[in-house]
Amino acid sequence: MENTNGSESGPVLDVRGLTVTLNGDAGSTRVVDDIDLSVRRGEVFALLGESGSGKSMTARAIMGLIEDGEVAATTLRLGDADLLSLTPEQHRRLRGVTVSLVMQDALSALNPVLSIGDQIIDLLRAHRRIARRDARARAVELLTLVGIPSPEKRVHDYPHQFSGGQRQRILIAMAIALDPDLIIADEPTTALDVTVQAQILDLLLSLRDRLGMGILLITHDLGVVMEVADRVAVMRTGRIVESGSADEVLTAPQHPYTQQLLHSMPKDVSAAVADDSAAPILQAADVERTFRSGSGRRAHRVAAVAGVDLSLRPGEILAIVGESGSGKSTLARMLVGLDSPDAGTLTYRDQDVTRGRLADRKVLRRGVQMVFQDPYMSLNPRMTVQQIISEPLAATRSGSPSSRRDRVAELLELVGLSPDMASRFPHQFSGGQRQRIGIARALALDPDVLVCDEPVSALDVSIRAQIIDLLCDLRERLGMSIVFIAHDLSLVRHIADRVAVMYLGDMVEVGDTEAVYRTPEHPYTKSLLSAIPPQTRADRGMLARRTRLSA
Predict the structure, then answer these.
(1) In this structure, is the dihedral angle defined by the CA atoms of residues 200, 203, 207 and 213, taken in order, positive or negative?
(2) Domain segments of the chain as ranges
(3) What are the start-end ranges of the H helices in 83-115?
(4) CA distances (Å), origin 216, targets 1, 42, 187
(5) Which of 495, 452, 449 is nearest to 472 (CA)?
(6) Cα separation, 451 vs 548, whole angstroms
(7) Which phi and psi angles does 205 have, rounded to 5°?
(8) Strand 449-453, strand 182-186: pairing
(9) Which end of the chain has less Cβ packing within 10 Å, N or C?
(10) Judging by DSSP bridges, how do beta strands 231-236 and 239-245 pair with one another?
């Protein structure tokens, strides 16, 4: 049900005609262009848009964090404070007290050399006259409030000793430490798994209800907006193109861009492409992979993959889902030959490629290729696209230099890019284009299987749909099989023939996608499915029935 706590009070944040201009070597660039928005006390206002839309710059302007640029507005008020008239020192004093920021990357936002307790204590004592003992007690109280277990003990721990979800809870604890009127949450759940994301959103709503603060939620995730927002504004290229109640905007969008965002899901794929009767093209039988953890007396082995069985049929899209640490990426590395199992057997086209002859391993690496998560990190920035895509061909001495150039042109066209782009470098492309280049490189040796490890998690929602549609189109055109590693279950349902669920190194459930989604058997699968953000506003009633796991 939509929150109405803030509907009868004035805005805690009032923005009219906000414009932000950044200064650079090439001149000035207007990144926020004449926008209006307001946030009432007790309300969640979502600012929705893709990368580069200006939503984070809007947040930085409100926080007084624009350094190399200019901020102009008709009105820019936070409570009783006129933000445009504040000096930098006055703005600094306001941060944390009246407005707080919860950032996306908690590990980067926290000081790695200070304990969590010391960081909260320093924050409190920087703004209030408070004894260190009292500040420590307040730190424990805050950690308790945000759901950190054993706060009396963990107050002494350092950021790296917490999980991603726990670090995000700690950031939220610091954000509410000084009882602000407004919290700006900038993509607070983007880097988190689906169940942890659900818990963090529930925490923010709970704190909103208990403390009565307003929340400005910055996100590119429609599911998150559908789940928690009372009102929403849609940003594109620095402008707000549509705003209103979340119900109105998300059920009856008026602007073409909002309509495009709402329809940015990949086309449903027919499972008929897969050959159910054929022998598996790639198979893992009771494979295990362990890693050494700790040192000295505390040294022990941790099972990343524990006795997993898996088979991939010709022409099939098999999704492997699970949270961070479930073992799915370790399994992916073994499937492509980048890592070897400690036990068990890997079979490719009826050949044992587990720890066999070098020739067998080469067959595996030629026939099974990987598409990585981050297209920017996986492409050599010093190489042109021509060199990147042709590198596997040169390494296997396939064809002449002339034929390799022709093959690169063919592959670029296959993934929807112009052959004229072959002379460019990775930094000259968008994220979606870089991922297309990564796919083209993976296709260079005509593999039978693509193993895609979170291939769209770093991309905006509309680009995500395009890459998924491309992979599905390639599967149909080339007859290849795809292993699709993901934590986004709402996406997997659209594309996979079968789905396998991993939890703490074990394969806990495998089956046809629709069967797993409609009648999940394992409790962990049920918890994953219950944590998927709603696809419609009517789905909000499901939130109360979530199975909560510890973040």
Answers:
(1) positive
(2) 1-98+182-263, 106-179, 280-534
(3) 88-94, 106-109
(4) 19, 11, 10
(5) 495
(6) 31
(7) -65, -40
(8) unpaired
(9) N
(10) antiparallel
Contact present, 312 and 452 (Cβ < 8 Å): no
Q: Which amino acid is at 83?
A: L
Name the residue type at position 312.
Answer: L
Neighbours of 357 (CB within 10 A): 11
| SS3 label, residue 513 | helix
| Amino acid symbol at 11 | P
Phi, psi of 511 (to 5 degrees): 180, 175
CA angle 291, 292, 297 (to 5 degrees): 160
pLDDT tens digits for the chain (551 residues)? 445 454 445 799 999 999 999 887 778 889 999 999 999 999 999 999 988 899 999 999 999 999 888 999 999 999 989 999 999 899 888 988 999 999 888 888 999 999 999 999 999 999 999 999 999 999 999 999 999 999 999 999 999 888 888 999 999 999 999 999 999 999 998 777 778 888 899 999 999 999 999 999 999 888 889 889 999 999 999 999 999 999 999 889 999 999 988 877 666 554 445 566 678 999 999 999 998 766 666 666 778 899 999 999 999 999 999 888 789 989 999 999 888 899 999 999 988 888 766 556 778 888 999 999 877 788 999 999 999 999 999 988 888 999 999 999 999 999 999 999 999 999 888 888 999 999 999 999 999 999 999 898 878 777 888 899 999 999 999 999 999 998 877 788 889 999 999 998 999 999 999 999 999 999 999 988 887 766 544 444 333 333 333 34
Q: What single letter denotes the amino acid at residue 40?
A: R
The tokens of 75 are what? 């009105």
Q: Which of 332, 310, 305, 344 is nearest to 505 (CA)?
A: 305
Q: Encode 301-315: b = buried (16+ Cβ within 10 Å), e = exposed.
A: eebbbbebebbbbbb
In 174-299, the DSSP E strands lie at 182-186, 214-219, 231-236, 239-245, 282-293
> Under a CB-based contact definition with an 8 Å cutoff, are residues 76 and 85 in contact?
no
Grouping H, G, I as helix, E, B as strand and the rest as coil, residue 349 is coil
**Looking at domain 1-98+182-263, what is its CATH homologous superfamily?**
P-loop containing nucleotide triphosphate hydrolases (3.40.50.300)
Q: Which residues contact 235 (CB under 8 A, 6 or more apart)?
A: 35, 47, 48, 49, 53, 54, 55, 58, 241
> What does pTM read for this prediction?
0.75
> What tokens were used for 501?
């669920």
Helices H / strands E in the chain, number of each: 21, 21
The token pair that represents 262 in the structure block: 């709402």
**CA 438 to each of CA 256, 426, 455, 483, 536: distance values in angstroms, whole numbers, following the listed order:** 30, 10, 10, 16, 34
Residue 501 in contact with residue 322, Cβ under 8 Å? yes
CATH code, 280-534 = 3.40.50.300
Domains 1-98+182-263 and 280-534 share a fold: yes
Contact 195, 549 (CB under 8 A): yes
3-state secondary structure of 491: helix
Cβ-based neighbours of 60, under 8 Å, separated by 6 or more: 20, 66
Q: For residues 541 and 545, what is the distance between their CA atoms, to the nearest angstrom? A: 8
